[in-house]
Amino acid sequence: MKIRIISGLVGLPFLAFVLIMGGPWLLGCIAAVAAIGVVEFYRAFGPVTKAMYALNIISVSAYMILIALFGVSAAFAVTIIFLVATMAHNVLTHKDRDISRPMVMVFGFIYIAVTLSTVFLVRESAGGIYAVWLIFIAAWGCDTGAYFSGMLFGRRKLAPVLSPKKTVEGAIGGTIIATALGAGFGLVLYNLGEIEANSIIMYATITFICSIAGQFGDLAASAIKRQRGIKDFGNLMPGHGGALDRFDSIIFAAPIAYLMLMLFEAGSVL
User: Fold this and answer.
1) In this structure, are residues 234 and 224 in contact, taking their beta carbons and an 8 Å threshold?
2) How far is CA 251 from the centre of its chain?
3) Which of 27, 28, 47, 235 has the fewest Cβ atoms within 10 Å of its own Cβ atom?
4) How crowded is residue 30: how many other Cβ atoms within 10 Å of its Cβ?
5) pTM for this one?
6) Torsion from C-alpha of 262, 264, 268, 270, nearest 10 degrees
7) Rounded Cα–Cα distance for residues 216 and 235 (Å)
8) How many domains does the chain have?
9) Structural domain boundaries, residue 19
10) What is the mean pLDDT of each run of 10 residues along the chain (270 residues)?
11) Three-state DSSP state, 150
12) CA-to-CA distance for 266 and 270, rounded, in angstroms?
């Protein structure tokens, strides 16, 4: 736990920098994390060939660039192209006739690259310079809150097969703490004159829903690791595992935050 806390504190200033800068800085970091995460996902299901490495880098890079230029309209086109490319690769590779491989590749691309790209979309939206922080407050604030809540009050196992250390009390405590952090963050911004008073409720609501989504993201990744018989997807960060281990909750929280912001924005327009 000590190593995990130290590496987390080291990475926090860099995270703050890229979130504040946004634009190419944030997009490049998301693309790097997504590319590493997708490869980690592929490795969990078997050997990764040079062709898979190349296709992954090209596809993730192209997707992120098109997202920056055209927004969500790029998602459908690139995903279809990626699907066709992976199926074509399966046809042309005579030694590998396992149809599950291209399926794993397409799912991994959507599961990781597409979902993580919504962090950039949130940052580039109206008020996104502040709202993007809610994703990380919800996911990592809940994770930290759940750890200490579970340590102090944990009695009932949340998912004993998938994650034996997680408890119901920890999950509830993590959600409460993350929601309080989101509301507190909104209150600070309101006092600084950066947001309206009603945005505090919006921030708390988004953090509450995203903290729950993030916990499902964590358990979903645990289910994959349990099924594949691995402890971590990688060893990118000391104490945190691979990129996918560190961002598994972000993968679920980010798209939910993006959808909720769109719904709030549509409601204000209506």
Assistant:
1) no
2) 2
3) 47
4) 24
5) 0.90
6) 70
7) 22
8) 1
9) 2-269
10) 57 88 94 94 88 86 88 75 76 66 86 94 93 96 93 90 91 97 97 94 97 96 93 76 92 96 74
11) helix
12) 6
